[in-house]
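FORM 12-B: Structure-to-Sequence Request
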């Protein structure tokens, strides 16, 4: 299943372990799964990009172009970023 095909129930399960309301995932039409937390980072210049060297691996790149974290999917990367920046399980 692709990440953009996750059900609301699956997202609800992910959101259970996200401690901050702003970091909880929601569906944004024309974009996909996001959160207020990610939207703020995005507006600061952060991006999630697929690695050119390792297809299927996604990178969180900060506003300076520095790779901060990497994971095997966008949702996995978001969860890792959330744990790294905000705290959670």
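FORM 12-B RESPONSE
SEQUENCE OUT:
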């Amino acid at each position: 299943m692709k990440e953009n095909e996750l059900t609301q129930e699956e997202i609800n399960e992910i959101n259970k372990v996200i401690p901050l309301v702003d970091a909880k995932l929601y569906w944004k039409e024309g974009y996909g799964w996001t959160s207020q937390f990610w939207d703020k980072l995005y507006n600061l210049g952060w991006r999630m990009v697929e690695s050119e060297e390792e297809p299927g691996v996604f990178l969180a790149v900060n506003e300076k172009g520095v790779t901060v974290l990497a994971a095997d999917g966008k949702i996995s990367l978001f969860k890792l970023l959330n744990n790294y920046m905000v705290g959670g399980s």
